[in-house]
Specification:
alpha+beta, five-stranded mixed sheet, two-stranded antiparallel sheet
Length: 437
């Protein structure tokens, strides 16, 4: 069924391309007369049938479908230009109650209404509870209080609706989710506002790929700390396959990341990984082909990886000695880019990207016997796998890689303990008369 659906979609795309190349406008005479179906383009049907090796009736049906779709788009555009009534493309990312409208449908509304009013319109059309809905568009969770226009929602925007619950019990759990999200942000902000100079036992230190601390202005430190904390919370939801909640938390993290300078984001790879995770949520919620936000996020991700790691991983290799862990991220990147290219009907690019993902994945494969041998030596499965990847399968070199990594971690931990002791001693002694520690 899925293959048949994809085949029809591909055929529709090919017919659309041919119509555009021939500059044929189906909404005009002779194809449309006074808003109604005009003469059947017999010669056109026969030509496309021959070129696409498809029966004439199927081609005629596709052309008629495209003609009606063109009229619908034209009417929606005129409604927006004359009366300010925008058409939004709504995608419900959940199983709908029986008797509801299709999960993918248009909704007409003015853009000066609030996010809550949009929820009410969706609730009425799809027979859903307002309090259970979360609305996402243009890469952000739509705020209940602000107008759609203020949140960059425009005519033709894609809108994804997540149904958080299906009954009152889940609705109560939803309040707990909101409280957990609020508490997560509060804890992150408290930790971010503490610094080494505050001499607190617990504070949040931001470091680059080598573990070297990054000194930031206070406001950026706060935003980045909150973003990283929310990011980890979202990734935990992903591991539990709670994709709806994960997407909401990750988009909150995205807001905080966007308060930081681009050069700060290029010093760490977390923002790039966040873009990957958000796109993965779109894919798992079956919405990757209807939100252009996914494509733009993957582009940001690729740019961020290149700035953070170097064009050919040279910066990362110089800093860490290997790049095996990060190569796994490129597998995810090329896989998702390949899927998007497929849904954009760019098969050649899709195949190229999927081949790149497969090629990198093969380099990350490890020999089971060698893996077992290292585990038998007392290393963990994760250590053994990462060591073999970094050593290109060499057992002796893998042992060196694992021990080197452990030593680096010990050195960083020792420095942190030394810093903690120094802060504790300063706290006990107190400040001098001049205010210095």
């Amino acid at each position: 069924m899925m293959n048949q659906q994809q085949s029809i979609e591909e055929l529709e795309h090919q017919v659309r391309v041919k119509l555009n190349q021939s500059k044929i406008k189906l909404w005009l005479v002779p194809y449309t007369v006074n808003g109604e179906k005009g003469e059947r383009p017999k010669n056109l049907v026969e030509q496309y049938s021959s070129e696409l090796k498809t029966d004439p009736d199927t081609i005629a049906s596709i052309i008629e479908k495209l003609r009606r779709h063109a009229l619908h788009k034209l009417d929606a555009k005129q409604q927006f230009q004359k009366h300010g009534v925008a058409t939004l493309k709504i995608k419900i990312a959940a199983n709908l109650p029986q008797g509801s409208v299709d999960e993918l449908s248009d909704l007409q509304t003015k853009l000066d209404i609030s996010g809550l009013d949009l929820k009410k319109l969706i609730s009425e059309k799809w027979k859903l509870k307002v309090e259970e809905l979360k609305v996402i568009s243009v890469g952000q969770v739509i705020d209940d209080e602000r107008s759609l226009a203020d949140q960059r929602v425009s005519h033709g925007s894609q809108v994804m609706v997540i149904i958080l619950t299906e009954n009152e019990v889940s609705a109560n759990a939803d309040e707990a989710k909101k409280m957990r999200l609020s508490r997560t942000k509060e804890v992150a902000e408290v930790l971010a506002n503490r610094s080494k100079e505050d001499h607190d036992k617990y504070h949040l230190q931001i470091a680059d790929q080598t573990g070297k601390p990054i000194d930031l202005p206070k406001e950026e430190s706060r935003a980045l700390s909150v973003a990283l904390t929310l990011n980890e919370r979202g990734r935990a939801c992903l591991k539990r396959k709670e994709y709806g909640e994960a997407l909401l938390v990750l988009l909150e993290a995205d807001k905080e990341f966007n308060q930081c300078r681009s050069e700060i984001l290029s010093a760490v790879d977390n923002y790039a990984v966040l873009c990957l995770d958000i796109t993965w949520c779109y894919f798992c919620l079956q919405n990757i082909d209807s939100l252009p936000d996914a494509e733009s996020r993957l582009k940001k991700c690729e740019e961020c990886f290149k700035k953070s790691y170097g064009a050919d991983m040279e910066r990362l290799k110089a800093l860490k000695g290997d790049s095996s862990r990060e190569l796994a991220l490129f597998v995810r990147l090329y896989l998702l880019q390949g899927i998007i290219a497929f849904y954009q009907h760019n098969k050649q690019l899709s195949i190229q990207l999927l081949h790149k993902a497969r090629g990198i994945l093969k380099t990350l494969e490890v020999d089971d016997e060698k893996l077992s041998h290292l585990i038998g030596m007392g290393f963990t499965t994760s250590e053994a796998r990462l060591g073999l990847r970094a050593a290109n399968g060499s057992l002796s070199l893998a042992v060196n890689k694992i021990t080197d990594r452990k030593e680096r971690r010990k050195e960083i931990a020792a420095k942190e303990r030394e810093e903690d002791k120094k802060r504790e001693l300063q706290r006990q002694i107190g400040k001098a008369a001049n205010g210095q520690w």
